[in-house]
Amino acid sequence: MQLSRTLVTSAIVAALGGLLFGFDTVVISGAEQQLEELFAPAANLSAWWGKFWHGFLMASALIGTVVGSVLVAKPSDRLGRRGVMFYLALLFFVSALGSALAWDWYSLVFFRFIGGLGVGGASVVSPMYIAEISPAAMRGRLVAVTQFNIVLGILLAYLSNLAIASLDFGATEWRWMFGVECAPAAAYFLLLFSTPRSPRWLVAKGRDEEARSVLEQVGIDQSAGTVDDELAEIKKSIDLEHHNLEEPFFQAKYFKPILLAFAIAAFNQLSGINAVLYYSRRIFEYAGFGESAGLMNSVGLGVVNLVFTIVGMALIDRAGRRKLLIVGSIGYIVTLGATAWAFYTQRAADGSFTGLGSQVVLVSLLAFIASHAVGQGAVIWVFIGEIFPNRLRGRGQAFGSFTHWIFAAAISQTFPLIADVAGGAVFAFYAVCMVGQLIWVLTAMPETKGVPLEKIQEQMGIE
Fold first, then answer.
1. 20 to 30 Å CA-CA from 97: which of 227, 250, 327, 415?
2. Rounded to the nearest 5 degrees, what angle is found at the Cα of 50, between the Cα atoms of 49 and 52?
3. 12 contacts 148 by C-beta, under 8 angstroms
4. Average pLDDT in the 318-326 region?
5. What confidence tier does 207 reach under pLDDT thresholds 50, 70, 90?
6. Per-residue model confidence as pLDDT tens digits over 354-363
7. Residue 245 binned pLDDT confidence (cut-offs 50, 70, 90)
8. pTM score of the predicted model
9. Cα atoms in the 13 Å half-sphere on the side-chain side of 329
10. Residue 224: pLDDT over 80
11. What secondary structure, in 3-state letters, does the chain show?
12. pLDDT computed for residue 15 by the predictor
């Protein structure tokens, strides 16, 4: 089918929330060692407590994402998906400026938390908005634009950190790393004025004529018939006469999509992806690379992430969600196992690595990122946005995002402590978790490729 210009531009603008999502969460990776040196000695902390509170600083944005993913559900139903995105842009801007100007550890934690609220909200609203304006045949690829922008944001953060490090700003280097995010946050806010509201949200609010106008602009599936037929399907799924929009979320008839959302979100982080993204520079230095090489290798992770995200986007509506997760799960198991092997067998008692061990870690983590990008990275936000009925999608997306960020915060908080004590065991643990993911995909995950949102609701057994 032919894509309308309004559909493409609206999806791209909404997905800028994903770019800020990726940039904000990873930009701290370039500054984390400088921040540890700056704040831990100043607080007279022991080595163990220093690492604990440093982990808390690193996880502060993720704690914000947990809160943001929960709080955004009702505003997204009340103000609309687009309306909430304006506020998210403001949160990103305030966080970037505040983090750059932070005067102590507490203020930096606070402003990182503010940015986390934006990330949590964007992880819910951006894919939900795109799913609701997209025809089923193109929904996977268009929602995956959010994931593309997330990894583009990650790559831009790594490149920005590398560029700033090369300018030798000294003690203020970390401030510049945070501050550059103000520019894309401002652009996101301004571009939102050019996007229409979600037609499904408009129908839920009784604004049928506006919804019809938006559907005419963005297009519908050829199998849907006419715009009026599409409107009728949306009304049927929302079913305002028989279902209250405030009905309880946790009830037996929604057990299946709730369990599916929890599983895919939990497994996403139990792969260790956020530990690798947040602490990439530190991991590479553990593996025997110098500081500059660690930053360059981090950029390499960002490039691989971007390239294989494009591959995942190209395949998601052809191969389907399940096949991509099967391939990604196998890739996770192999690469994490190889990384654990290198830490166990190629690291001397003094912490030095053999040349072989260093190269195994580098190649394995690059392949790990590729596996994530093709599998979980491409699928998670598309899948969660598909499996809940229209009237529950806001809260369903929020629940999936909440689960994702709870596990992300736990992984990011604990990694510095566990890696220092256990070394490669942490990667072995992630590999075992990915065996669990592979079993789940093979036995419990349904395929949603090419199925209209309203039909998925029927397949879930939801009236």
1. 415
2. 60
3. no
4. 93
5. confident
6. 888 889 999 9
7. low
8. 0.75
9. 20
10. no
11. CCCCHHHHHHHHHHHHHHHHHHHHHHHHHHCHHHHHHHHCCCCCCCHHHHHHHHHHHHHHHHHHHHHHHHHCHHHHHHCCHHHHHHHHHHHHHHHHHHHHCCCCHHHHHHHHHHHHHHHHHHHHHHHHHHHHHCCHHHHHHHHHHHHHHHHHHHHHHHHHHHHHHHCCCHHHHHHHHHHCCHHHHHHHHHHHHHCCCCHHHHHHCCCHHHHHHHHHHHCCCHHHCCHHHHHHHHHHHHCCCCCCCCCCCCCHHHHHHHHHHHHHHHHHHHCCHHHHHHCHHHHHHHCCCCHHHHHHHHHHHHHHHHHHHHHHHHHCCCCCHHHHHHHHHHHHHHHHHHHHHHHHHCECCCCCECHHHHHHHHHHHHHHHHHHHHCHHHHHHHHHHHHCCHHHHHHHHHHHHHHHHHHHHHHHHHHHHHHHHHCCHHHHHHHHHHHHHHHHHHHHCCCCCCCCHHHHHHHCCCC
12. 86
- Where do we find the tokens 């000294």? 170
- At 359, list the tokens: 């190269």
Residue 164 CB contacts under 8 Å (≥ 6 apart), including other chains = 30, 173, 176, 177, 180
Both tokens assigned to 271: 């792969």
